[in-house]
Structure formats: C-alpha cells, structure tokens
Fold each of these.
Amino acid sequence: MWIRRAQIGVCGGIILCALMCAAAQPPVFEAAAYGARPDGLTVSTAAIQQALDAASAAGGGVVTLPRGTNVAGALFLKSNVELRLDAGVTLRAVRDEAAYPLIPSRVAGIEMPWPAALVTAVGQRNVRLTGAGVLDGDGAYWWAKYWGDDRKGGLRSDYERCGLRWAVDFDCKRPSMVLFKDCEEATVSGVTILRSPFWTVHLLYCTRATVDGVTIRNNIGGYGPSSDGIDVDSSRDVLIQRCDISCYDDNICLKSGRDADGLRVNRPTERVVIRDCVTREGHGMFTLGSETSGGIRNVEVSNIRALGTRTGLRFKLALPRGGVVEDIRIRDIVMEDVRNPFAVSGGGMVYAYPLPGGLRPDEVPEHWRTLMRKVEPPERGIPEYRNITISNVTATGAERAFDVRGLPERPPHAFLLENWAVKARSAGALRHVEGWTLRGVTVEAEDGKPCQMEDCRDVAAPRVTCPSAR
C-alpha cells in the first residue's frame, strides 16, 4: 500500500511538473495563419508583422514562419518576442528600398536616419532571433547600387567624380540584416545569414546582448561593400561565441562613435567577451575602431581561428576620432594564411570633407554637416590605445608578421605581446609605439631580415629567425 501511494505521489508530481512546464512555454504564433506564403514570390511583410504584433499584444511569444522562402521587408520585434526560423525556413529580403523605412540610427559612427534592418528592434527588452533557418539579404542589388555590377560604377563612381568620396558611404543607404538598438537582453542565435546588403549584425546602444552560434556567408555571388560580420557599437555586457563568419569587411568589430558626433554621444563599448569563433574571408578577424570616440574597454577575446582572413588583429588609430581603447585581453589565437596577423593603422582613415562647386554648408544634407563638424580642441581627436595584452598567438602563411604604424602624436603604449610564433615572408615593421613588452615573440621570416623599428621607445625588437639558415 505504501509503495502504491508513493507511486501515485511520484506520478502526480511528474504530472504537476509537466503541467507547470507546459504552462510556462510561451505561446506560438504561426505567420502562415496571418497570410504568410513561403513561395519565394509573395511579399509577406504585413502578415509576418501581424504575427509579431499579436505575440507582443499577448505579452510575449514565439513567431514561426512556414517552411520555404518567405520574402519580406523590414520586420520589427517587440519586447518578449522571439522570431524563430526553423530548419527549412528562409526569410529573404525583398528588393524594394521602400520596404525599409528610415529610422533614427547610427552608421559608421554618426547618428543619422538609416534604413531599418530586415529584423529590427528599437528600445525593446528580451528580444530574440533564433533557429536553424536562414536570413538571406539578396545583397547583389544593393551592392550594385554602391559600386555597380563590375565594382567600378554605381553611386561611388558618381561621387568620386564630384570629389565626394567621403559622403558616398553615408548617402548610399543600404539595410543591415539585424539591428538591435537601445535593447536589453537581446539575442541572435543559431541562424545562418547570407548576402547582407550592408552590415550583418549591428548591436547599437544595447545592454546584455548575445550572438551565439551564428553563421555568416556574405560573399555569395559577389562581394558586398561594408558587409561587416558583427558590429558592437557603444554597447555593454556583450557575448559573441561559436560564430563562423565570412564577409567583405571586418569580421568582428568594436565601435563607439566618430569624431565630433561620437564625442558628443560619448557612450563606450565595454565588457565584451568574444570566444570560440572562426573567421574566413574578411578584412579583420578582430577589429578595434576606427570609430573609437566613446571609448572601448574591458574586452576579452579567446580561442579565435582565422582562415584566410586578410588581417588578424586589426587596430585602427584614426584622427580625429579621439577616445580611449584600454584593458583589452586577447589570447589563444590561431591564424592560417592571414596576410597580416597584426596590423595597427595610425591616421590612415582620415578623410577631408571638401564641398565641391562652391556649395555652402547650409545647402547640404544634415549628416554632411555632422561629418564636417570639427573636433575642438584638436587634442580631443587623438585616440589613445593602452593596456593591451595579446598572448598565445600562432600564425602561418603570413606576408608580414607586423604591420604596425602607431600615431606619432600619441603612440599606443603599455602593450604586452607574449608567446607568439609567426611564420611569414618578412618580419615587417613596428613604428611609433612606446612601452611595448615582447616576451617569447618569435618570427620565422623567409627573407631573414630583422623587424624594422622606427620611432619605437622602450620597445625590444622581436626575435627573427630564417628557415634557410637551419
């Protein structure tokens, strides 16, 4: 009798637990019930948005799309809503600029109106984009808008002829794939993202954001200008892990505002963890800057593998960005066939902002005037990089082990490079740096020449060996 009562008690507990778990599951809203059609032709923006709004009105929930290719423009997530793309589901961006309304945003470091992303959340809490499905930006249309089908035309060519190279990136408005702005508890996980028209995942002014297990493949059918992988922009408490990124600009990049406008906003990127990722095609495995006006600090990067990425660790020291980049810890990095394992570009990103044809500032768009606003006093525009540790680095198949050019006005200082083993054609050069400690740093250079040292104060040259001398 005791056993039977105990069994009943246990079974009752299991049933009660199951009921509680079932009750805790958020409701599911199927976009197909609102008219979404996965035929690759029907534009289902309104139907999917109705499902998202219904989930929000219910206090939260999960929105799913039918299997197949769902075509849509900008979709807006609200608090406590998850957009889940299951395996076999594709959400493809429609080729219609009107489908991505301009919203207040920030691009390349200045606040300005910019097209909403395919998946957008602004000022929300607990928003999620998840699943094993695909976001497809169908980027070729947008790439051609910027530089033509042959990368020699488009808006960029028109602007260059007018002496406006500096403005084209801001005027050729192209949507991102994911924009979370001013959000708390924001998550992107599991999805595969293809052919982004512009930046792929943009975290702007966010707190507690996670990008986990995301695969990015932008270089399909061409190359998209400024198709960064993941951009963390004046955000804090961010985790990026288990991502696999191929793009045509920086793979993972930390930013915090540009020039006078960035100094006005003055919001740092801080407390960021990046780990267990792979980068493939792209301009920078891990990039700091060039937008640094609000500062970047307290960053941990570990266990990253770069396969054929153009540059590994890429630090951009641009004038007149200003800001302090500090307390960066990077370890356990493996690079294969990376042209420049470590590049520091001091001052190389500066653009002049001349107005052609006698135009007056009051005759040009507001964001042009923002770009032309001077940093006063000029010293505010000199960025500072300090307290950076990079350890346990292995690189093979490189061209130059070091391509470092700091700023003479404010050399990057208090760097520790420890336990490096680099195989390259040449050791490269260190210029305009101060107070660097190199401990256990060895370069096997095919040309056998030492690392060039120029205007280096309190810096020991790395040890260089020649494989032919063995």
Amino acid sequence: MDMSKENRKQRGKEKNKVVFPIAEKLSDMSDSYRGFIGEIKSKIKHERLKAVLSANKSMILMYWQIGKSILERQEKEGWGTKVIDRMSHDLKEEFADILGFSPRNLKYMRKFADVWKDYELVQRTVAQIPWRSNITLLDKLKEPELRLWYAQKTIENGYGKDMLIFQIESQLHLREGKSVSNFNKALPPSDSDLAVQSFKDPYIFDFVGNDKHKLERELEQSLIDHIQKFLLELGQGFAFVGRQVHLELGDNDYYLDLLFYHIKLKSYVVVELKIGKFDPGYVSKLNMYLNVVNDVFCKPGDNNTIGLLLVKSKDKLVVEYSLTGFLNPIGVSNWESEITKTIPENIKSNLPSIEEIEKELRDE
C-alpha cells in the first residue's frame, strides 16, 4: 500500500477516535473508579430486571441513584467534573441500546440528586413526572419550595413540558387563588378554600393572539377554537358544557357566554367575558344567570352555581363593594393575552386603549 495513503488512513482513524481528558482505557483507571463504575453498571442492570427502563418512575429513581452516587464519590475521592465524560463513555459502551447517558444528562442526574435529597419525596412527587419536566424544574426555578409546588401542579394537572414552562414563566404561583370574590361568605368553609384555589387572576390567554378583539363574541370564539388550551388555563376539574346557552325568562331571551361544570366543586360555573373595564352592572346580570342555572340545570347533589366574570381591567375596591350583599358565589378576574403581558409597563402605558381607538374610528 502506498505510504501516503496509509498515513491518511491512520490520520482518519485518529481524527475519529474519542479522546478523553483522563485515562483512555478502563484498565488504566484507578481501582476506586473501576469499582465505582462497576457499581453503577450493576444498578442499571438491576433496574432493567425490575422494570422496563422506559417506565418513567423506575428510570427517574435510577437517575436519582446514579446522581447521588456521583455526588458521594466526587466528595469522597475528590474527582472533578471530567469524570462525567469518562462515565458517559463507559456506560454507553456497556448499554449501547439505552439513551440518556450523555455527559449533559449525567450532570443533570447529579444536580437532580443534589436538589432533591429526600428519596421518599422523590418517590412521591418528581418521580411521577417526565424527566424533561424535571429538567425544566431544575433550569427554571431556584427556590426549593417553588420547585415542589410546580411539581405537584404538574402531577395534578398533567402538564407537559411546554405547558409547565408557560405556567412557570407566567408565574402561576402568584396568580392562583387571587381572583377577587365573595367565596368566603357565599360558600361553606369546606367549599370556599377549594373554590378560591380553583380560580386565578389574571388568566393568560396567549393563544387568542393580541388585543384586537372589539367584541366579546370574538374573544369567545377564540377561546372555543382553542378549547383544550382554555381548559388547561382554567385548571384541573373544569368540564366544558356549552357556549351561548339559551335562557328564556318570560318574553326575554338571554345567553350565557360559557358554561362549565367543576367536578371537584360539584358546581356549574358560568363564565362571562368582557373586553373592557369592570362595571358593577355586570355582577347583577351574572347573579341573575346563576339563579336561573341553580333552578334549571342543577340536580340533587349539585352545589350552588359559581360565576366567573373575566374583564380586561378592574378596580379591586369597586369589585369588592359590588359583590357585597350577593348570596351567589362570584369571582372577578382579569384576562390577558401574551402580547400585553410581555409589553414593558413604560411602553404599555403609552399605547392607546381599545376605547380610545374605537373613539378615533367613530370620529373619522
């Protein structure tokens, strides 16, 4: 064979060869490391015998055990981060058919075990949600209490990774239970707390586009077009019943914007949509709707119907006075779209309101 061709072939081999920052051959590694990697391999084999690796809980508990082992050995042996690259190579070589042993993922396992130190807590909570969602909790949140709170919400509501990211970025923990309501007076204590936690303020309807809606019907149609996302934003327990539900009272016809049933509360929920600022008159009309639904729709075992009024803006004090005296449970919350939520306040304050734009159009 031509010598230059042989040299090129040799250089090609060297170019494709994996180069490690520490000893290339496992036999050249210390006895301590060889024993350690042997233990890790045994743990993986043991878990594979217990359950299929793709089973989420088994996989995540195994990841926690690997991460904990890495932490303990690094502390005991003084190993640096380069050992992760070595481990990745050895585990991939042994378990070529299993994904998840990249250096990046092994570092997440170490962080996972460092963040969640209580194995029983891991079993009860974060082992119940997908690994990608666990990585989201590690990347997006620093406070242990918030990580646990969002992990529990993920389990309760079945959030996928994208929805979990959205709820974290929209600060669900600050919105849940913030609706202005009379629940504590209109509902018995056993139902009041659950009702408070079932409603939030504001609601984020990022899927309806911007604030171009000039009619409530347009907003309603947007919510219906994205009913699955709407239900996710409403939260766990809401079941869609109907839209523009007809009520006939004497010679008058009325239509409920949206009607839901809350399974945990065992209550119908009437949702009324407004594109403008809160007006006290809205409460009176909504209260009438609740009385009719209680009489016409409710069956034995159903609790009193709850009203949710969604407005573009409100004065909390005005809302509180407006709700005083009503016996039906009513909550009032703002709704926002993604675009208004993300516009900086100093810019948003200089933008014309919907009312101002409509006035300009009328004056032309």
